[in-house]
Structure formats: C-alpha cells, structure tokens
Design a protein that fits this description.
The protein is an alpha/beta fold and 205 residues long. Helix content is 39%, strand content 20%. The protein has six helices and eight strands. α5 packs across α6 (171-184).
C-alpha cells in the first residue's frame, strides 16, 4: 500500500526492523476503528516475515457491546486479516487493564509452538488421513502422488512433502493440508511452511 512520507514511513520501517528481530509480534488493533489499511499492511509484513503473531484488540472498554458484539467483531477481524487465520485474538483494554494479564501467557504459548516438532510417523499418518479424506488433484488422468513427509525445521515449523509432481499441488490443496495439520496439532499464532519436492516413485518402492 501507499505509505505517506514522514512519520508513517518511519513507523513502517521501524515495524519491519522489529519484525525481523521478534520472536512473537503483537499486532495492536483499535476497537473503535476496526482494522485499518495500515493494520492490514503491517499484518501482511508479519505474514511475509513468517513471524509468530497475536492480534490484540485494544480499547474494548470504549465499545458499546451486547451479547453478539465480540463474535461479530471477531468475524470482521478474521475477514479483514484473512491471511493470518492462525493468529489468536485477544480483546483487551490498556486503560482498565481488562485481560492484559493474559497477554504474556499467550505470548509464551505461541513462542513454544514455534519450536514444536511432529514426529515423522505421526506426520505421515496425518498425511495419509488427509489424502484419504480429500484426494490430491490430477491432470490428464495423472494424479499427484504423495510418498512421504517430514518436518525439516522449526521456527517456523517447516514440513517437506515428497511428491511426483510438486508443480501440480495447487495453493488450495496446500492450504487444505496445512489446515488438516493445524486441526490435529496445536500451532497457535505460528505460521507453517509447506514445501513440496519431486521424488520418483521407484525411490520409495
């Protein structure tokens, strides 16, 4: 997005530098304004840097509320920041101290998830389950074959899938596999990287 020269530009540059140093980023949103363009811009930088993240909605005390307000506000935040679906969302008030005591424990939980590793056997069981429930795509009658998966790294957790046609694994199927892993293993606030590498079938015969 367009960044106005001056204070805004300086703030964005500082945000980029901070993200590269950070273990966990806290993206502070103003409950009285909702998600602004600048919030989305910084959120995009968080995603690009693969930094773990927590969404904090501040000034929650200043919002007129009923029984549906938090649910509706949460849905709007999720819609506006749909590229950070894994980020925990916490409603706080710096002025009154509401839920502020929950921030640091949540930071510790998210930071721990960055280092989490899934044993290879467990990961391959999840992969086989995911493939059985939703088979991979095919082209001209040839289906993508998944042979093996392993977690290559942590910070962020990185999973390598060995397949016959990595270029055929569509983004939507990659997202499905990521969501399947997240549905069975807790990675709050932590981005996951999925890498697809070519291997011939006879290698796994």
């Amino acid at each position: 997005g367009k960044i106005v020269p001056g204070i805004e530009k300086y703030s964005v540059l500082r945000a980029i530098k901070a993200l590269r140093r950070a273990d966990v980023a806290l993206l502070l949103l103003d409950a009285t304004q909702g998600v602004t363009n600048q919030d989305s811009h910084i959120g995009g930088m968080v995603a690009d840097e693969a930094t773990a993240v927590i969404l904090l909605v501040n000034k929650w005390d200043a919002v007129d509320k009923d029984t549906h307000t938090m649910t509706e506000f949460s849905a709007q935040v999720r819609h506006d920041l749909n590229f950070l679906p894994y980020a925990p969302l916490l409603f706080i008030s710096a002025k009154t101290g509401q839920r502020v005591n929950k921030i640091l424990p949540l930071v510790m939980e998210v930071n721990e998830a960055r280092y989490k590793r899934i044993p290879t056997g467990r990961l391959n069981r999840l992969m086989r389950e995911a493939l059985a429930k939703h088979p991979p795509p095919s082209k001209a009658g040839v289906r993508v074959k998944f042979f093996y998966a392993t977690q290559a790294e942590s910070v962020p957790p990185t999973f390598v899938f060995f397949v016959n046609k990595p270029e055929w694994v569509h983004f939507s199927y990659q997202r499905y596999l990521e969501n399947y892993i997240r549905g069975h293993e807790a990675f709050p606030g932590t981005p996951l990287r999925l890498v697809f590498r070519a291997r011939s079938e006879d290698r796994f015969a």
